[in-house]
Amino acid sequence: MLIYPVCCQLVGEIFFNATALSFINQCPCLSPDLGDYGKQFPDFIANFEPVKHLPYLSDVAHLEWH
What we know:
The chain has one domain. It is globular and about 35 Å long. The two termini are 15 Å apart. The chain is built from 4 helices and no strands. By secondary structure, the chain is an all-alpha fold. The protein has helices at 5-11, 13-26, 41-46, 57-65. α1 (5-11) runs antiparallel to α4.
């Protein structure tokens, strides 16, 4: 939520947390640097069925990551 505050505001905290949990369960951290974890989150969102109706959400997440 700290890295993606706008995404969180767009979908709501409860939904964002559930989405993040799905990401964590499906995309384990492969880097020894935890600062890298979350870089794939925008791509995960782009393919996450519950937010297919929000095609801009992954773009917002890409902007927030950078």
